[in-house]
Write a sequence for this structure.
């Protein structure tokens, strides 16, 4: 069982008390689901967030994702450069104090936008420079800390607040049988990147105390510097990654081309378990 605290019958939306969030939704559009988690309560809010993002059980949780990388140049609208497809495996490990340490293993490859074929070389459409394309991985040794006091990356030296605040950092919306969680990924100061995360799941899965995870889909929007092989450094601006993701039970559910790619080139990215690092 994964229930945390008794249901207190407060409003479901984490920000409703402070901002009136969710007031636009008529009662007739809300699902008839018994609410076992109070998202105004810090402990319940943390539990709900972990169920949406990963699993309350310490296990690999794979996500298949794909999308498009846009170039955002000064004074211009976003211009599509390449498509991407990848794997992100998350592993959440509960700590004795009730917080979670979150580890991830991520690998992506890139496709030509016209042919859909995996790219071996990329020609910059602005300056004609041609470079070999390499897969993209995230190799930061740090992990994420999620607690009722907030969240941060482990290499961020700033302490978390003394008072619980997780319920104020998460934004929840629901419509019918669906629930959405909106939040931002935490980065240490000075990082030239940011990520807005929108995660959708089923209310009945979120409030089922016997389920350790919600089978979510997500739409992250990631802003970052250009990848080196894009040869964009002299043009200014930044890269914008946009596309959906889906939580799965096993990497065996990945498209065959993606699984073959990770197995061949990045076998260390097939698990996020900290003991495997």
């Amino acid at each position: 069982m994964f229930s945390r605290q008794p249901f207190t019958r407060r409003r479901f939306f984490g920000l409703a008390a402070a901002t009136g969030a969710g007031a636009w939704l008529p009662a007739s559009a809300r699902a008839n689901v018994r609410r076992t988690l109070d998202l105004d309560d810090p402990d319940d809010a943390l539990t709900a967030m972990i169920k949406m993002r990963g699993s309350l059980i310490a296990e690999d949780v794979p996500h298949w994702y794909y999308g498009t990388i846009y170039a955002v140049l000064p004074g211009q609208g976003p211009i599509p450069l390449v498509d991407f497809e990848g794997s992100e495996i998350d592993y959440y490990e509960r700590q004795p104090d009730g917080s979670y340490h979150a580890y991830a293993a991520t690998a992506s490859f890139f496709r030509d936008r016209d042919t859909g074929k995996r790219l071996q070389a990329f020609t910059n459409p602005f300056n004609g420079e041609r470079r070999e394309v390499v897969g993209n991985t995230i190799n930061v040794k740090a992990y994420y800390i999620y607690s009722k006091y907030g969240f941060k990356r482990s290499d961020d030296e700033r302490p978390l607040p003394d008072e619980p605040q997780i319920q104020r950092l998460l934004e929840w919306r629901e419509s019918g049988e669906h629930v959405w969680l909106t939040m931002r990924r935490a980065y240490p100061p000075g990082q030239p990147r940011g990520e807005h995360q929108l995660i959708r799941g089923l209310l009945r899965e979120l409030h089922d105390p016997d389920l350790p995870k919600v089978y979510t889909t997500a739409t992250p929007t990631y802003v970052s510097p250009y990848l080196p092989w894009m040869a964009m450094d002299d043009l200014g601006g930044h890269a914008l990654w946009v596309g959906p993701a889906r939580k799965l039970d096993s990497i065996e559910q990945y498209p065959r081309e993606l699984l073959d790619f990770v197995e061949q080139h990045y076998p260390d990215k097939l698990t996020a378990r900290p003991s495997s690092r």
